[in-house]
Design a protein that fits this description.
Protein name: GTPase Der
Distance between the termini: 12 Å
Organism: Allofournierella massiliensis
Family: Belongs to the TRAFAC class TrmE-Era-EngA-EngB-Septin-like GTPase superfamily. EngA (Der) GTPase family.
Strand order of the largest sheet: 2-3-1-4-5-6
CATH class: Alpha Beta
CATH architecture: 3-Layer(aba) Sandwich
Bound molecules: guanosine-5'-diphosphate, magnesium ion
CATH topology: Rossmann fold
Number of strands: 6
Subunit structure: Associates with the 50S ribosomal subunit.
Function: GTPase that plays an essential role in the late steps of ribosome biogenesis.
Length: 163
């Protein structure tokens, strides 16, 4: 069976944009409204000599209503099934408490996590804010722009090391 790679993170960080970029199609719904991806969406991804199934988990929200509980459950199922997890955070928003909650949950899962700091749109000297994300405790970070595609090659290289 193809290994599964789950894209995880709080709403609006750019998970679906990254998913679409990596599979080269627009399957996931990109929305300015947080939490709009209601179910897991799968797509094949090929990189170097690897083929894997990428899953857009739709976000882990901490709310208590039925939809949020459902999304959280779906995300947990994807994490359980995954060989490797891409955690996405948003440079512009900075490190949030919800990011830290998710990072902690992922570390408890024991799965390899590759941290993608999204919305680093400008090429060149990385902004100082980038380094704040080391505080999540997930190790190496990969600056990317899901809109432009910058940095996604290095990110995929890191993912493939775990497959
Ligand atoms: P999700 O909720 O995590 O799936 O986030 P979406 O993929 O729906 O994106 C949320 C918003 O962030 C949308 O307005 C996207 O266009 C925007 N966005 C996503 N990636 C980037 C990026 O690399 N740079 C910029 N500037 N905006 C981005
Ligand atoms: Mg989404």
């Amino acid at each position: 069976a193809k290994p599964i790679v789950a894209v995880v993170g709080r709403p609006n960080v750019g998970k679906s944009t990254l998913f679409n970029k990596l599979i080269g199609q627009r399957l996931a719904i990109v929305e300015d409204t947080p939490g709009v991806t209601r179910d897991r969406i799968f797509g094949d991804c090929e990189w170097q000599n690897h083929t894997f199934l990428l899953v857009d988990t739709g976000g882990i929200e901490m709310g208590e209503d039925d939809i949020q509980t459902h999304i959280r459950h779906q995300a947990q199922l994807a994490i359980d099934a995954a060989e490797c997890i891409i955690m996405v955070v948003d440079l512009r928003a900075g490190v949030t408490a919800q990011d830290q909650d998710i990072a902690n949950q992922l570390m408890r899962s024991g799965k390899p996590v590759v941290l993608a700091v999204n919305k680093v749109d400008r090429i060149g000297e990385p902004p100082m804010e980038l380094y704040d994300f080391y505080s999540l405790g997930l190790g190496e970070l990969y600056p990317i722009s899901s809109v432009h595609g910058h940095g996604t090659g290095d990110l995929l290289d890191a993912v493939c090391e775990h497959l």
